[in-house]
Structures are given as C-alpha cells and as structure tokens.
Design brief:
With about 700 residues, the chain is an alpha/beta fold. The chain contains 20 helices and 23 strands. The longest helix is centred in the first third of the chain and has 24 residues. About 60% of the residues are buried.
C-alpha cells in the first residue's frame, strides 16, 4: 500500500499551489476541476452498499441485511472485492469519456455499520443487524474488500453514519440521540472503532442527528476527541447530505450558514455533501475559519486521491476494462449469496417441495414478479434480474409443472386496478389456489415502504414502519389462500422484522438481489438447503419495545430483551440436521473448537455460534453476547472440526463510565447452532454446549 506520508507530501505540494478559493472549492462533494494544475473534477458521492449503485449496470447482490444473514466473513469480503472491481471497471471507462458525474467515482460511501436497534427503522436493511460484534466483523471485511491490498486503494470505503444513528427518519434532521457512556462504547461505537483501527477505513461519514446535544457532523466529542485523538484516524470525514445545513435550520446549534460551515470544518469535517461549504469563503472573511483550517481539510482530500492512484501512472487498477463488470462469474456469486442468505423461519414439513408429486403450483403476491423486491435500496441496475415468479417458472418448466400466477393484491393499497372495487384480485387468488397443489405467496415490503426519509413512498412514516404487520391488502390475500385449505408457503421479501402468522412454511428472502428468483426455486425444491441465520431479533409487536426515540439499550436486541421474541437472533432452520460435540475453549489464545456433524440426509451449511456471559459482573449484558461465529459446509453424514476465533473482548464488559474492563473471573461459554436462550432451544430442539471458564 502506498505510504500515507508520501501521499500526504504529494497532497501538500499540490495544494500549496492553489489559491484559497481553489482550496475551498475542493471541500465540496462535487469538487470542480483546476485545469491550470491538471486537477480533473471529482465527485466524492458514490454508493456501493451491495453492488455499485446508482451508476447504471452492475451486479446487484442481496441487500446488506441479507449478506449479514450469511454469517461468513470470508464470503463477505469476496462480495466486496467484486464490488470494488466493478467500481474500477466503470470508473476507468467513464473517466476516459470525461464522465465525472455523481456516483461515478471511487470514494464509496459504504458500508452502513449503524446498529439496527429497533425494527421500525426504515434504513435498518442497509445495516448488518443488531449485534455490534457481527457488525464489526462484517464491516471490517467489507472495507478490506473495497479498499483492496494493492499499492493503491482500489476504492476508498466510508464507515457511516458516525454515530448513534438509527431513526426515526421523520425527525432525523432535528433529533438528539441521547446515549449513556455504557451504551455508546458497548453498542454504538465498536464497529466504527474496528473500521478505523483494523480495516484502515479511508473515510467516515457523520450522521444527521445530534448525539448528546452535539450535531454529529460538528461534534467535538465524536470527530475530535474520539475519532482523531483516541483512535488516531488519518483519513477524511464527510458530512451526510445537507446535514451541515441542519446546524442552523433544524438543530439551531448555529445561526447562519457560514457559522455552520465553520463549526463543521473546525471539528474536522473535510468534505460537505450539500451546499453549506459554498459559504466557506464568507466564513473566512468573517474570521470564523483560517486559511490553515481550509488547507488542512483540502490536503486530507487530496491525500485520499493520491492513495487511490488518481494522479499516478502506475496504478495497477487502471487496466481493468469496463467488460469486467456484469460478468457470468459475478452473477454466479450473486446467486450463491442469495442462496446462503435466505432464512427458513417455519416449516411443518411442506418444504422442500417434491417435484415428482406436484403438477400445478400457484405463485401469487405483489412481490412475486417485482424487481424492487429484489433490489432493496442504494442499488445498481442488473441486466440479469430473475424475479421470484421467473425463477420458479424456469425451474418448473423442466419438470413439467404448470405455474399459475396472480398478483393477488397491491403491495399496500386496497386494490390493484384504479377503477376496481376493493380487494379486486382476491377472486383470482382463490381460483389459482384452488387449481394448485401448493401456493407460494410472495409477500413483504420493498424500499418504497421501508427506507430513507425522502426516498420512499411511505410518506406517512418517512420510510419507517409503524408496526410489524404486513400491509392489510396482503393480510387479506393470505387469508383468502388459507380459506382454500391448500398448502401455503410464504416467501417474505423484507429488510426487517415482520410477524406473519399465516402459512405452513415461511422463508425469509430479504431483498435477495438479481438472482433472487433462481435461488428461491432451488431452495423451495430442495436443491439447496436454507442456511441463513437472523442477524436481528424478530418481535411479536412493537408494543414489546421501548419508545422508538429511546436510544437506551434496555429491553432492545437479543442482548437486552427480557421477553420471548417471535424468532431469536442467530436462528434459522435447515432441511438437514446437525449435531455439535466435543467443544473445547482455549481462552488464552482466543479459540473455541468443536466437532460439527451433518446427521441428516441432505448436504447443507450451518453457522457455529459462540456466546459468552460473565457470571459475576454487574456490567454484563442482560442475556449473552455473540463472541464468535463460523460457517461450515457439510455433506450428508460428514463431520468436521471447526475452529471459531473469539472476539478479543469476549471476556470483558463495559462499565457505566464506558470503560471496557475485565471484571469477573467466571464466564459461561456456549457453543452451538444458536443462542442458549429458551426459544432457540425450543425451535431447534437442541441446546448449545456449555463450558465454564475461570480466570485466576
């Protein structure tokens, strides 16, 4: 990797030739060209959440929450490597055509490593779920995959949104997220610390909200005391888009745009997504910032550009051709990702379907033939989409199985046809169900209902969910199918927790990306055994949870929830059975080993999970915490010894002052295929193995 000091030296040399106005201009996300210095225009705003996004054709992988459900660090990095490769392929071609527009650069504003603490949050599907350790591990590997290991950064990753950011969307521009030190350092900050210290992330994005009174993009606590001083972060900081404007229009921590620009810059926010830094020269004239302040941030931005090889003639990535984007190999990886991500939540034996015994299958529902149900948000555009209906139909064609289809209902409106009566597709649903041997109902949401404020059609909640129920239109459709008495499988495209009681089996597909339909068919008919695990808790109702605006972790997520959830974190069924035995804990070297056997008659994959609990400390979480995981693939009848690396903080707790300490001496370590909680044991029929570790 290019030495940062050398990149910093080159940046200093270049920036020293700029006028003050030129330096100030480079702090905007759409940095203009400086022709006299040979500096081309560059747009810092680019997206790569689960594929190169918003820039035309690219491979679309499962949404981030679906990738998290795979519980596989190595695979996660492999996906990120493909994304960065396609980003370079597209950048090389576009820049050669002097297309330097938004979304066509190499500074990728991904991953989103916020904690999905409340199922109502519309942007939760952009994250890796509710657990800080899982989020840290996947975040680190995604960043490494994006940034590469060559002489230059393949792309520059960005850890966002720093910090304590997870809704509500409707009030994010004026909301103050109040968090105590224990929750900050135990839950909200670990993934960002890992991104900086372990992954060497090049960029960090601030959040819209205030955190304990300070606007996040101008927070001395976050950006100076923690990020720069405590963690020694050397990259650049960007604001969220138009977040600095909120300083004086919504948060009222400043009075004018120049004051807002000055506060953000002084606290180390180097680039402004938005237009408030257009007032930077006025801030300078008013004495609110110095030329040295502007120069420092400008040099940080050009340091990143040098690290990406944008002024180099020996960058190893410049030769990547545009044709390396959207390849068969990348499509195959997207298919594998979709297969690994889907979670089987319920099954009374109807799955897998027997192709020899089924002559007619009904595929129904508003998500059955929907591209948005595959895409999630912050997505690219695939040339290879396979909807759920298309995937099932292609599979059934070779088996001589007739496929009947009905949209069934609108995603959320009371009718499909504008001039029709309410529930205008229910008769058709009943007809196709009556004529079929089994019904596959493709239900759920899409990014028009759950997502970012301003991006979604869900205006009544600004992208957040009001409850955990399906829209009423879909509930009525499922009731109509249940009334026919035909076997019913619900396939749920969603990025968060829903409570769907109808059906004989329930398969959580997430937003599975371009190959979602192919993956679904292979799982439904048993060619692939489902192996995804929940990276978040499914609750029965939001009534079980604290207020959405309460950022305390009390009674939130599997670590602190005191009730009995609908489905627990880490849970997922399979078509085969597994057994874990011979567990051994090497606490000194940070490993747990166990033998895992596939005791069923189908090949499959599962996830070995290790949870730890300090039995003595009053600072331990209410339940247990994830301390290690490893995915393993086993043929029917095969067994393997699996080594699970433990979290380096596995045997520590965070006290009320936010300090991580080794407090107790006796720890319970659970190794198995789930949490040790009552519901997981009940649903899976087996408890993790328990070992007690004592430190002298």
């Amino acid at each position: 990797m290019m030495d940062r000091n050398e990149a910093r030296r080159l940046a200093h040399e270049l920036v020293s030739k700029m006028t003050l106005e030129e330096k100030a201009s480079q702090l905007r996300f759409d940095s203009p060209a400086i022709p006299r210095l040979g500096v081309p225009a560059y747009n810092w705003w680019n997206e790569a959440l689960h594929g190169v996004a918003r820039a035309g054709t690219a491979t679309v992988f499962p949404q981030a929450i679906g990738l998290a459900a795979i519980f596989d660090e190595d695979f996660h990095e492999e996906v990120a490597k493909v994304i960065s490769h396609e980003a370079r392929a597209k950048y090389n071609g576009q820049s050669a055509h002097e297309d330097r527009d938004i979304y066509k650069g190499l500074s990728m504003w991904s991953p989103n490593i916020n904690i999905f603490r409340d199922p109502r949050w519309g942007r939760g599907h952009e994250t890796y779920g509710e657990d800080p350790y899982l989020t840290s591990r996947l975040g680190v590997r995604f960043i490494k995959g994006l940034q590469g290991d060559g002489k230059y950064l393949k792309t520059a990753a960005c850890a966002k949104h720093f910090a304590v950011h997870s809704g509500p969307e409707a009030i994010r521009h004026e909301f103050d997220a109040v968090s105590n030190p224990k929750d900050m350092w135990e839950t909200y900050l670990p993934a960002f610390e890992a991104a900086v210290k372990e992954a060497g992330v090049e960029s960090v994005m601030g959040a819209y909200n205030r955190v304990n009174g300070e606007a996040a993009c101008g927070s001395k606590t976050l950006l100076v005391d923690i990020l720069r001083d405590k963690w020694a972060f050397e990259g650049h900081v960007t604001s969220d888009c138009w977040a600095i404007r909120d300083f004086h229009t919504r948060h009222f921590v400043t009075s004018t745009a120049p004051e807002s620009a000055a506060l953000a810059l002084k606290m180390g926010c180097d680039v402004n997504c938005g237009n408030t830094y257009l007032h930077m020269m006025q801030a300078y004239q008013e004495g609110l910032v110095t030329e040295d302040d502007i120069t420092l941030s400008c040099e940080r931005m050009f340091t990143s550009r040098y690290l990406m090889g944008l002024f180099a003639d020996d960058c190893e990535y410049d030769a990547i051709p545009f044709t390396d984007c959207d390849t068969d190999e990348h499509d195959a990886l997207a298919l594998t990702a979709a297969e690994k991500s889907m979670v089987l939540l319920r099954n009374n034996g109807v799955l897998p379907l027997n192709a020899d015994k089924i002559r007619t299958i009904a595929v129904i529902g508003p998500n059955a033939n929907s591209l948005p149900a595959l895409e999630g948000n912050y997505n690219g555009v695939s040339s290879r989409y396979v909807t759920f209906l298309e995937g099932v139909r292609a599979y059934c064609k070779d088996k001589g199985i007739r496929v009947l289809y009905s949209e069934g209902c609108h995603l959320f409106k009371e009718k499909v046809q504008g001039l029709g009566l309410e529930a205008d597709r229910l008769a058709e649903v009943a007809m196709v169900a009556e004529a079929a041997d089994v019904v596959i109902a493709c239900v759920g949401l899409d990014a028009t209902l759950e997502g970012e404020e301003g991006d979604t059609g869900n205006a009544f909640a600004s992208g957040d969910k009001l409850n955990l129920d399906l829209p009423e239109s879909q509930q009525k459709m499922l009731d109509a199918v249940v009334a026919t008495g035909k076997p019913l499988v619900t396939v749920v495209a969603v990025g968060s927790a829903l409570n769907i009681p109808q059906g004989d089996a329930e398969l959580l597909a997430w937003y599975p990306g371009q190959a979602g339909g192919t993956a679904l068919a292979k799982i439904l008919f048993g060619e692939v055994s489902p192996s995804g695990k929940l990276p978040l808790t499914f609750y029965h109702s939001v009534d079980e949870l604290p207020e959405f605006t309460d950022y305390s972790m009390v009674n939130r997520t599997y670590r602190y929830f005191t009730g009995k959830p609908l489905y627990p974190f880490g849970y997922g069924l399979s078509y085969t059975t597994f057994d874990v035995k011979d567990c051994a804990v090497d606490a000194e070297n940070g490993w747990v080993t166990a033998t895992v056997a596939n005791t069923g008659c189908k090949d499959g994959e599962t996830v070995v999970q290790v949870y730890v609990r300090d039995t003595q400390s009053k600072y331990e979480v209410a339940n247990t915490h994830l301390a290690g995981f490893a995915r393993v693939a086993l043929k029917a009848g095969e067994e393997k010894q699996v080594a699970v690396m433990l979290d380096k903080n596995a045997f520590t707790v965070v006290n009320d002052e936010g300090e991580r300490i080794a407090d107790g001496k006796v720890y319970d370590v659970y190794c198995g295929l789930s949490q040790p909680d009552e519901l997981s044991v009940e649903l899976l029929g087996a408890a993790p193995l328990k070992t007690t570790v004592t430190f002298e």
